[in-house]
Amino acid sequence: MKRDLNVIVAEAMSMKDDELVKYQEEGFWYFAHPYSVRDERGRQSIQGMKANFNLCNVRAGKLAWEGWKIFSPISHGHPIAMRSTYFILSPEKRYTYWMNLDMEFLSRTRFDGIILASEFMTSHGCMKELEMFEQAGLTVLLYSRIFGKGV
């Protein structure tokens, strides 16, 4: 990543309310949210992924309800991943497939920027998505700046 993560977060947190209103009214946003969770043995936790899917949808719903035009890849991909025995039996292939699809989708779609969920720094996927938006010079917003702390 070109810019320091602390600088990116500081800029996003200091955004003025009128800028947020403009982005809300005029923008098309990619909602990045943590998904994968490892258990105490280092394996992917299906329960953790389900919990993150549910939290992501609560947050995506809140954004949509407030008028933000978003695409939420976890909301799209989780039902497919959880209903396909192929993906369930191969966590590594599952991760690779969805990250590759994400990157392809990002490269072909004209988003105005990314909205990062509160725990984005804990997610390899969110950090990769942030890097792509940063490289493209697009706007970075924080869910916690839009709604404050909490869900």
CATH topology: Rossmann fold
Q: How many domains make up the coordinates?
A: 1
Beta strands, count: 4
Helical element count? Answer: 8
**What is the oligomer described by this structure?**
single chain
Helix content: 55-70%
**Major β-sheet profile:** 4 strands, parallel
Radius of gyration: 15 Å
Distance between the termini: 28 Å
The average pLDDT score comes to: 88
Which of globular, elongated, flat, extended, rod-shaped describes the shape?
A: globular
User: What is the top-level CATH class?
Assistant: Alpha Beta
> What series of H and E elements makes up the topology?
HHEHEHHHEHEH
* CATH superfamily label: Hypothetical protein PA1492
Point out poorly predicted stretches: none
Beta-strand percentage range: 5-15%
Secondary-structure content class? alpha/beta
Taking strands numbered 1, 2, ... along the chain, how are they ordered across the largest sheet? 2-1-3-4
CATH architecture verdict: 3-Layer(aba) Sandwich
